Amino acid sequence: MVERNSDQLLLCKLCPVETKDKFCVANCIGCKDLFCFVHLMEHRQQLSDQFDQLIKQHTDINEHSLTEVNIRQHLEYIDKWESEIIQLIQQHTKDVKEKILCISNVYKNELRQRYTNLGKDLSDKRVLNAIIEGDLKEISKQIEQLDKDIKNVNKVLHQIAVKELNDIAEKCNKPVNTTEKSIQWNYLHDIKLDSTYGYMAANDKQILLGWKNRIVIYHVDGTKRDETRLQSVEQYGELSDLIWSSAMERFFILCRKSVFVHYPSSNKIEILPNITLFNHCNNYTSIATYSSKLYLLHEESLDVWQLQNNLFLLDCSISIKAIVKNYLEETISCIRVNEQNLAVLIQNNKTHAWRLDLFNTDRFQRTYMGTSFDCFNQNNLGLFMVFRDSIYLFMNWETKLMRMIDSNGLNQIIDYNAFNACLLGTQNKIIVNYMTHLKIYEF
Q1: Which UniProt keywords apply (predicted)?
Q2: FRET pair for 68, CA 20 to 30 Å: which of 177, 276, 335, 382?
Q3: What is the pTM for the complete model shown?
Q4: Cβ contacts of residue 154 below 8 Å, gap of 6+?
Protein backbone atom coordinates (compact mmCIF):
# COMPACT_ATOMS: atom_id res chain seq x y z
CA MET A 1 0.00 0.00 0.00
CA VAL A 2 1.16 3.53 -0.69
CA GLU A 3 1.45 6.13 1.95
CA ARG A 4 -0.67 9.21 1.77
CA ASN A 5 1.29 12.38 1.22
CA SER A 6 -0.08 15.26 3.22
CA ASP A 7 1.23 17.77 0.68
CA GLN A 8 -0.14 16.09 -2.44
CA LEU A 9 -3.17 13.99 -3.17
CA LEU A 10 -2.17 10.81 -4.98
CA LEU A 11 -4.69 10.11 -7.73
CA CYS A 12 -5.59 6.88 -9.49
CA LYS A 13 -4.30 6.59 -13.06
CA LEU A 14 -7.71 5.64 -14.40
CA CYS A 15 -9.89 8.06 -12.40
CA PRO A 16 -10.89 11.36 -14.04
CA VAL A 17 -8.84 14.33 -12.88
CA GLU A 18 -11.90 16.17 -11.56
CA THR A 19 -12.79 13.21 -9.31
CA LYS A 20 -11.44 13.89 -5.82
CA ASP A 21 -13.21 11.27 -3.75
CA LYS A 22 -11.22 8.23 -4.83
CA PHE A 23 -7.78 8.10 -3.38
CA CYS A 24 -4.94 5.93 -4.54
CA VAL A 25 -4.71 2.84 -2.36
CA ALA A 26 -2.04 0.76 -4.19
CA ASN A 27 0.54 0.75 -6.94
CA CYS A 28 1.37 -2.05 -9.42
CA ILE A 29 4.89 -3.40 -9.01
CA GLY A 30 4.87 -4.38 -12.71
CA CYS A 31 3.84 -1.22 -14.55
CA LYS A 32 4.51 1.10 -11.54
CA ASP A 33 1.15 2.89 -11.99
CA LEU A 34 -1.13 3.99 -9.07
CA PHE A 35 -4.73 2.76 -8.81
CA CYS A 36 -7.74 3.20 -6.57
CA PHE A 37 -9.30 0.03 -5.21
CA VAL A 38 -11.92 -0.28 -8.00
CA HIS A 39 -9.46 0.26 -10.83
CA LEU A 40 -6.88 -1.91 -9.14
CA MET A 41 -9.32 -4.82 -9.40
CA GLU A 42 -9.97 -3.99 -13.06
CA HIS A 43 -6.25 -3.80 -13.78
CA ARG A 44 -5.65 -7.16 -12.12
CA GLN A 45 -8.52 -8.67 -14.10
CA GLN A 46 -7.00 -7.43 -17.35
CA LEU A 47 -3.70 -9.04 -16.44
CA SER A 48 -5.53 -12.24 -15.58
CA ASP A 49 -7.38 -12.20 -18.92
CA GLN A 50 -4.14 -11.67 -20.83
CA PHE A 51 -2.54 -14.53 -18.95
CA ASP A 52 -5.52 -16.77 -19.74
CA GLN A 53 -5.03 -15.89 -23.42
CA LEU A 54 -1.41 -17.01 -23.24
CA ILE A 55 -2.50 -20.30 -21.69
CA LYS A 56 -4.95 -20.75 -24.55
CA GLN A 57 -2.23 -20.02 -27.14
CA HIS A 58 -0.01 -22.57 -25.46
CA THR A 59 -2.81 -25.12 -25.54
CA ASP A 60 -3.43 -24.40 -29.23
CA ILE A 61 0.24 -24.98 -30.00
CA ASN A 62 0.13 -28.30 -28.23
CA GLU A 63 -3.07 -29.42 -29.94
CA HIS A 64 -2.72 -27.97 -33.44
CA SER A 65 0.72 -26.64 -34.30
CA LEU A 66 2.63 -29.78 -33.39
CA THR A 67 0.31 -31.86 -35.55
CA GLU A 68 1.25 -29.64 -38.50
CA VAL A 69 4.88 -30.80 -38.40
CA ASN A 70 4.52 -33.18 -41.34
CA ILE A 71 7.63 -35.27 -41.82
CA ARG A 72 6.03 -36.94 -44.83
CA GLN A 73 6.27 -33.85 -47.04
CA HIS A 74 10.00 -33.58 -46.36
CA LEU A 75 10.53 -37.26 -47.09
CA GLU A 76 8.51 -36.85 -50.28
CA TYR A 77 10.67 -33.87 -51.24
CA ILE A 78 13.80 -35.99 -50.74
CA ASP A 79 12.25 -38.82 -52.76
CA LYS A 80 11.39 -36.38 -55.54
CA TRP A 81 14.95 -35.04 -55.58
CA GLU A 82 16.29 -38.60 -55.67
CA SER A 83 13.98 -39.44 -58.56
CA GLU A 84 15.03 -36.33 -60.51
CA ILE A 85 18.72 -37.09 -60.01
CA ILE A 86 18.21 -40.70 -61.11
CA GLN A 87 16.30 -39.51 -64.17
CA LEU A 88 19.04 -36.98 -64.88
CA ILE A 89 21.71 -39.67 -64.68
CA GLN A 90 19.69 -42.12 -66.76
CA GLN A 91 18.95 -39.52 -69.43
CA HIS A 92 22.54 -38.30 -69.58
CA THR A 93 24.01 -41.81 -69.68
CA LYS A 94 21.56 -42.60 -72.46
CA ASP A 95 22.75 -39.48 -74.28
CA VAL A 96 26.38 -40.49 -73.78
CA LYS A 97 25.72 -44.00 -75.09
CA GLU A 98 23.95 -42.66 -78.16
CA LYS A 99 26.73 -40.17 -78.76
CA ILE A 100 29.40 -42.88 -78.44
CA LEU A 101 27.47 -45.09 -80.89
CA CYS A 102 27.06 -42.18 -83.30
CA ILE A 103 30.73 -41.18 -83.19
CA SER A 104 31.79 -44.83 -83.34
CA ASN A 105 29.80 -45.29 -86.54
CA VAL A 106 31.44 -42.20 -88.04
CA TYR A 107 34.88 -43.53 -87.13
CA LYS A 108 34.09 -46.99 -88.48
CA ASN A 109 32.75 -45.65 -91.76
CA GLU A 110 35.80 -43.44 -92.21
CA LEU A 111 38.26 -46.23 -91.35
CA ARG A 112 36.36 -48.74 -93.49
CA GLN A 113 36.50 -46.34 -96.44
CA ARG A 114 40.23 -45.83 -95.96
CA TYR A 115 40.71 -49.61 -95.74
CA THR A 116 38.73 -50.14 -98.96
CA ASN A 117 40.57 -47.39 -100.83
CA LEU A 118 43.93 -48.73 -99.71
CA GLY A 119 42.96 -52.26 -100.77
CA LYS A 120 41.88 -51.01 -104.19
CA ASP A 121 45.15 -49.13 -104.56
CA LEU A 122 47.10 -52.29 -103.71
CA SER A 123 45.10 -54.36 -106.19
CA ASP A 124 45.53 -51.82 -108.97
CA LYS A 125 49.27 -51.63 -108.45
CA ARG A 126 49.52 -55.44 -108.37
CA VAL A 127 47.58 -55.76 -111.62
CA LEU A 128 49.64 -53.08 -113.35
CA ASN A 129 52.83 -54.35 -111.72
CA ALA A 130 53.77 -50.69 -111.36
CA ILE A 131 55.59 -50.82 -108.07
CA ILE A 132 58.66 -48.82 -107.14
CA GLU A 133 60.53 -48.32 -103.90
CA GLY A 134 58.75 -45.07 -103.15
CA ASP A 135 55.37 -46.80 -103.47
CA LEU A 136 56.39 -49.49 -100.98
CA LYS A 137 57.45 -46.88 -98.46
CA GLU A 138 54.29 -44.78 -98.89
CA ILE A 139 51.93 -47.78 -98.78
CA SER A 140 53.72 -49.16 -95.72
CA LYS A 141 53.26 -45.78 -94.04
CA GLN A 142 49.54 -45.75 -94.90
CA ILE A 143 49.03 -49.28 -93.56
CA GLU A 144 50.82 -48.46 -90.31
CA GLN A 145 48.79 -45.26 -89.90
CA LEU A 146 45.52 -47.08 -90.60
CA ASP A 147 46.38 -49.79 -88.08
CA LYS A 148 47.34 -47.13 -85.54
CA ASP A 149 44.10 -45.19 -86.08
CA ILE A 150 42.00 -48.34 -85.73
CA LYS A 151 43.68 -49.22 -82.44
CA ASN A 152 43.29 -45.62 -81.26
CA VAL A 153 39.49 -45.60 -81.70
CA ASN A 154 38.81 -47.26 -78.34
CA LYS A 155 41.09 -44.79 -76.60
CA VAL A 156 39.33 -41.82 -78.18
CA LEU A 157 35.86 -43.19 -77.41
CA HIS A 158 36.91 -43.86 -73.81
CA GLN A 159 38.16 -40.29 -73.43
CA ILE A 160 34.87 -38.94 -74.78
CA ALA A 161 32.88 -41.20 -72.45
CA VAL A 162 34.93 -40.16 -69.40
CA LYS A 163 34.52 -36.47 -70.21
CA GLU A 164 30.76 -36.79 -70.72
CA LEU A 165 30.33 -38.81 -67.51
CA ASN A 166 32.34 -36.23 -65.58
CA ASP A 167 29.93 -33.61 -66.89
CA ILE A 168 27.09 -35.69 -65.46
CA ALA A 169 28.81 -35.84 -62.08
CA GLU A 170 29.22 -32.06 -62.07
CA LYS A 171 25.54 -31.57 -62.82
CA CYS A 172 24.53 -33.97 -60.03
CA ASN A 173 26.67 -31.99 -57.57
CA LYS A 174 24.70 -28.82 -58.27
CA PRO A 175 21.97 -27.74 -55.82
CA VAL A 176 18.55 -29.14 -56.67
CA ASN A 177 17.09 -25.77 -57.59
CA THR A 178 19.80 -25.14 -60.21
CA THR A 179 19.52 -28.46 -62.05
CA GLU A 180 18.98 -27.62 -65.71
CA LYS A 181 15.69 -28.60 -67.31
CA SER A 182 15.26 -29.26 -71.01
CA ILE A 183 13.27 -26.63 -72.85
CA GLN A 184 10.15 -28.30 -74.17
CA TRP A 185 9.64 -28.21 -77.95
CA ASN A 186 6.21 -28.99 -79.34
CA TYR A 187 6.28 -30.51 -82.82
CA LEU A 188 4.12 -28.67 -85.38
CA HIS A 189 4.78 -30.10 -88.85
CA ASP A 190 7.31 -31.29 -91.44
CA ILE A 191 8.44 -29.72 -94.69
CA LYS A 192 9.77 -32.19 -97.25
CA LEU A 193 12.72 -30.86 -99.25
CA ASP A 194 13.48 -31.48 -102.92
CA SER A 195 17.22 -31.68 -102.20
CA THR A 196 19.75 -31.28 -99.39
CA TYR A 197 20.69 -27.80 -98.19
CA GLY A 198 23.32 -26.96 -95.61
CA TYR A 199 22.51 -23.31 -94.95
CA MET A 200 19.21 -21.70 -94.01
CA ALA A 201 17.56 -18.64 -92.50
CA ALA A 202 13.93 -17.65 -91.99
CA ASN A 203 11.59 -14.78 -91.28
CA ASP A 204 7.99 -15.12 -90.11
CA LYS A 205 6.73 -16.28 -93.51
CA GLN A 206 9.61 -17.62 -95.59
CA ILE A 207 12.46 -20.08 -95.25
CA LEU A 208 15.59 -19.48 -97.33
CA LEU A 209 17.81 -22.52 -97.98
CA GLY A 210 21.00 -22.83 -99.97
CA TRP A 211 23.95 -24.95 -101.00
CA LYS A 212 26.89 -24.05 -103.26
CA ASN A 213 25.23 -21.51 -105.59
CA ARG A 214 21.63 -22.70 -105.36
CA ILE A 215 19.01 -20.78 -103.36
CA VAL A 216 15.44 -22.00 -102.77
CA ILE A 217 12.58 -20.36 -100.89
CA TYR A 218 9.82 -22.23 -99.06
CA HIS A 219 6.72 -20.85 -97.45
CA VAL A 220 6.29 -21.78 -93.80
CA ASP A 221 3.35 -24.01 -94.76
CA GLY A 222 5.75 -26.16 -96.83
CA THR A 223 5.02 -25.02 -100.37
CA LYS A 224 8.01 -24.14 -102.52
CA ARG A 225 7.92 -20.55 -103.71
CA ASP A 226 11.00 -19.92 -105.80
CA GLU A 227 14.44 -21.13 -106.81
CA THR A 228 17.46 -19.32 -108.20
CA ARG A 229 21.13 -19.87 -108.85
CA LEU A 230 23.66 -17.22 -107.95
CA GLN A 231 26.12 -15.88 -110.47
CA SER A 232 29.43 -17.45 -111.41
CA VAL A 233 30.88 -19.60 -108.61
CA GLU A 234 34.37 -18.93 -109.96
CA GLN A 235 33.86 -15.18 -109.63
CA TYR A 236 31.76 -14.89 -106.47
CA GLY A 237 32.51 -18.14 -104.65
CA GLU A 238 30.27 -20.81 -103.17
CA LEU A 239 27.67 -20.11 -100.52
CA SER A 240 29.11 -19.97 -96.99
CA ASP A 241 26.30 -18.59 -94.77
CA LEU A 242 22.74 -17.23 -94.66
CA ILE A 243 21.16 -14.82 -92.18
CA TRP A 244 17.88 -12.90 -91.79
CA SER A 245 17.89 -9.33 -90.47
CA SER A 246 14.56 -8.26 -88.97
CA ALA A 247 15.88 -4.71 -88.45
CA MET A 248 16.89 -4.30 -92.11
CA GLU A 249 14.07 -6.58 -93.38
CA ARG A 250 16.21 -8.58 -95.77
CA PHE A 251 18.12 -11.83 -96.11
CA PHE A 252 21.89 -11.71 -96.49
CA ILE A 253 23.47 -14.39 -98.66
CA LEU A 254 27.19 -14.77 -98.00
CA CYS A 255 29.47 -16.36 -100.59
CA ARG A 256 33.22 -16.86 -100.35
CA LYS A 257 33.94 -13.75 -102.41
CA SER A 258 30.75 -11.72 -102.25
CA VAL A 259 27.59 -10.73 -100.39
CA PHE A 260 24.10 -10.85 -101.89
CA VAL A 261 20.84 -9.47 -100.53
CA HIS A 262 17.37 -10.96 -100.95
CA TYR A 263 14.39 -8.64 -100.45
CA PRO A 264 11.24 -10.66 -99.58
CA SER A 265 8.90 -7.84 -100.60
CA SER A 266 10.16 -7.77 -104.20
CA ASN A 267 11.65 -11.28 -104.33
CA LYS A 268 14.85 -9.80 -105.80
CA ILE A 269 18.43 -10.88 -105.17
CA GLU A 270 21.09 -8.21 -105.58
CA ILE A 271 24.82 -8.10 -104.97
CA LEU A 272 26.46 -5.61 -102.60
CA PRO A 273 29.19 -4.33 -104.95
CA ASN A 274 31.24 -2.24 -102.53
CA ILE A 275 31.63 -5.14 -100.09
CA THR A 276 32.42 -7.59 -102.86
CA LEU A 277 35.21 -5.40 -104.23
CA PHE A 278 36.65 -4.84 -100.78
CA ASN A 279 37.03 -8.58 -100.25
CA HIS A 280 39.37 -9.23 -103.16
CA CYS A 281 41.91 -11.54 -101.52
CA ASN A 282 40.13 -13.37 -98.68
CA ASN A 283 37.34 -15.90 -98.29
CA TYR A 284 34.27 -15.00 -96.28
CA THR A 285 33.19 -17.71 -93.84
CA SER A 286 30.32 -16.32 -91.75
CA ILE A 287 27.93 -13.39 -91.43
CA ALA A 288 25.87 -11.85 -88.63
CA THR A 289 23.67 -8.78 -88.26
CA TYR A 290 22.41 -6.59 -85.46
CA SER A 291 20.37 -3.43 -85.92
CA SER A 292 21.89 -1.68 -88.95
CA LYS A 293 25.30 -3.33 -88.63
CA LEU A 294 26.67 -6.15 -90.73
CA TYR A 295 29.42 -8.40 -89.32
CA LEU A 296 31.52 -10.21 -91.95
CA LEU A 297 34.08 -12.81 -90.97
CA HIS A 298 36.90 -13.76 -93.32
CA GLU A 299 40.31 -15.36 -92.98
CA GLU A 300 42.18 -12.30 -91.74
CA SER A 301 39.67 -10.14 -89.87
CA LEU A 302 36.14 -9.47 -88.71
CA ASP A 303 34.77 -6.49 -90.64
CA VAL A 304 31.90 -4.41 -89.26
CA TRP A 305 29.80 -2.52 -91.82
CA GLN A 306 27.23 0.18 -91.03
CA LEU A 307 24.17 0.81 -93.19
CA GLN A 308 23.86 4.54 -93.95
CA ASN A 309 21.54 5.99 -96.59
CA ASN A 310 21.00 2.52 -98.05
CA LEU A 311 24.76 2.06 -98.49
CA PHE A 312 27.08 -0.07 -96.37
CA LEU A 313 30.20 1.71 -95.13
CA LEU A 314 33.09 0.03 -93.34
CA ASP A 315 32.92 0.94 -89.64
CA CYS A 316 35.89 -1.04 -88.29
CA SER A 317 38.01 -4.11 -88.92
CA ILE A 318 39.18 -6.41 -86.12
CA SER A 319 42.11 -8.75 -86.66
CA ILE A 320 41.52 -12.45 -86.11
CA LYS A 321 44.59 -12.41 -83.86
CA ALA A 322 42.65 -10.17 -81.46
CA ILE A 323 39.79 -12.67 -81.29
CA VAL A 324 41.40 -16.10 -80.92
CA LYS A 325 43.78 -17.02 -78.11
CA ASN A 326 46.25 -18.86 -80.34
CA TYR A 327 46.27 -17.66 -83.93
CA LEU A 328 48.29 -20.64 -85.20
CA GLU A 329 46.14 -23.29 -83.55
CA GLU A 330 42.59 -21.90 -83.67
CA THR A 331 40.09 -21.20 -86.44
CA ILE A 332 36.83 -19.25 -86.28
CA SER A 333 33.99 -21.16 -87.89
CA CYS A 334 30.89 -19.07 -87.29
CA ILE A 335 29.66 -15.82 -85.71
CA ARG A 336 26.26 -14.70 -84.45
CA VAL A 337 25.12 -11.48 -82.73
CA ASN A 338 22.34 -10.55 -80.33
CA GLU A 339 21.70 -7.46 -78.22
CA GLN A 340 24.18 -8.46 -75.54
CA ASN A 341 27.02 -10.25 -77.30
CA LEU A 342 28.92 -11.15 -80.38
CA ALA A 343 29.25 -14.93 -80.09
CA VAL A 344 32.22 -16.58 -81.82
CA LEU A 345 32.53 -20.32 -82.51
CA ILE A 346 36.20 -21.36 -82.39
CA GLN A 347 37.78 -24.72 -83.20
CA ASN A 348 41.19 -25.92 -82.05
CA ASN A 349 43.05 -27.31 -85.06
CA LYS A 350 45.00 -29.82 -82.96
CA THR A 351 42.36 -31.26 -80.63
CA HIS A 352 39.43 -30.44 -82.99
CA ALA A 353 37.41 -29.38 -79.95
CA TRP A 354 34.99 -26.47 -80.13
CA ARG A 355 34.68 -23.43 -77.88
CA LEU A 356 32.14 -20.59 -77.77
CA ASP A 357 33.47 -17.16 -76.71
CA LEU A 358 31.40 -14.02 -76.11
CA PHE A 359 32.45 -10.44 -76.85
CA ASN A 360 30.98 -7.05 -76.02
CA THR A 361 29.71 -5.55 -79.28
CA ASP A 362 30.57 -1.95 -78.35
CA ARG A 363 34.14 -2.17 -77.06
CA PHE A 364 34.79 -5.63 -78.49
CA GLN A 365 36.17 -7.05 -75.26
CA ARG A 366 35.94 -10.74 -74.43
CA THR A 367 33.30 -11.14 -71.71
CA TYR A 368 33.31 -14.93 -71.59
CA MET A 369 35.70 -17.66 -72.69
CA GLY A 370 33.96 -20.99 -73.06
CA THR A 371 35.15 -24.47 -72.20
CA SER A 372 35.92 -27.08 -74.84
CA PHE A 373 33.16 -29.39 -76.05
CA ASP A 374 32.32 -31.88 -78.81
CA CYS A 375 35.77 -33.26 -79.60
CA PHE A 376 36.19 -35.04 -82.94
CA ASN A 377 38.98 -36.86 -84.75
CA GLN A 378 39.46 -34.25 -87.46
CA ASN A 379 38.58 -30.69 -88.40
CA ASN A 380 34.90 -30.50 -89.25
CA LEU A 381 32.23 -27.96 -89.99
CA GLY A 382 30.11 -26.59 -87.20
CA LEU A 383 27.40 -23.95 -86.99
CA PHE A 384 25.45 -22.41 -84.15
CA MET A 385 22.52 -20.08 -83.63
CA VAL A 386 21.24 -17.79 -80.89
CA PHE A 387 18.31 -19.63 -79.34
CA ARG A 388 17.60 -17.23 -76.49
CA ASP A 389 19.49 -14.28 -75.02
CA SER A 390 22.07 -16.46 -73.28
CA ILE A 391 21.44 -19.90 -74.82
CA TYR A 392 22.93 -21.17 -78.08
CA LEU A 393 22.38 -24.24 -80.24
CA PHE A 394 25.47 -25.86 -81.78
CA MET A 395 25.30 -28.24 -84.75
CA ASN A 396 28.21 -30.50 -85.74
CA TRP A 397 27.94 -31.33 -89.45
CA GLU A 398 29.98 -34.52 -89.08
CA THR A 399 28.25 -36.18 -86.12
CA LYS A 400 24.84 -34.44 -86.62
CA LEU A 401 24.74 -33.76 -82.88
CA MET A 402 22.85 -30.67 -81.71
CA ARG A 403 23.90 -29.24 -78.36
CA MET A 404 22.32 -26.61 -76.16
CA ILE A 405 25.06 -24.54 -74.51
CA ASP A 406 25.32 -21.35 -72.46
CA SER A 407 27.85 -19.38 -70.41
CA ASN A 408 26.77 -21.09 -67.16
CA GLY A 409 28.08 -24.51 -68.10
CA LEU A 410 25.01 -25.94 -69.80
CA ASN A 411 26.11 -28.51 -72.40
CA GLN A 412 23.22 -30.76 -73.30
CA ILE A 413 22.74 -32.96 -76.37
CA ILE A 414 19.18 -32.40 -77.60
CA ASP A 415 19.21 -34.02 -81.06
CA TYR A 416 21.24 -36.71 -82.83
CA ASN A 417 20.43 -36.10 -86.47
CA ALA A 418 20.25 -32.31 -86.85
CA PHE A 419 22.24 -30.60 -89.58
CA ASN A 420 21.24 -26.99 -89.00
CA ALA A 421 18.60 -24.88 -87.28
CA CYS A 422 17.25 -21.34 -87.19
CA LEU A 423 14.49 -19.38 -85.51
CA LEU A 424 11.29 -18.74 -87.43
CA GLY A 425 11.48 -14.95 -87.47
CA THR A 426 10.37 -13.36 -84.22
CA GLN A 427 7.99 -16.17 -83.28
CA ASN A 428 8.67 -18.72 -80.55
CA LYS A 429 9.30 -21.32 -83.22
CA ILE A 430 12.40 -23.10 -84.45
CA ILE A 431 13.15 -24.92 -87.71
CA VAL A 432 15.50 -27.91 -87.61
CA ASN A 433 17.12 -29.13 -90.84
CA TYR A 434 17.39 -32.94 -91.14
CA MET A 435 18.77 -32.75 -94.72
CA THR A 436 15.80 -34.45 -96.42
CA HIS A 437 13.16 -32.53 -94.51
CA LEU A 438 12.60 -29.71 -92.03
CA LYS A 439 10.77 -29.94 -88.73
CA ILE A 440 9.10 -26.93 -87.16
CA TYR A 441 8.73 -26.82 -83.38
CA GLU A 442 7.10 -24.37 -81.00
CA PHE A 443 8.67 -23.58 -77.64
Answers
A1: Coiled coil
A2: 177
A3: 0.61
A4: none
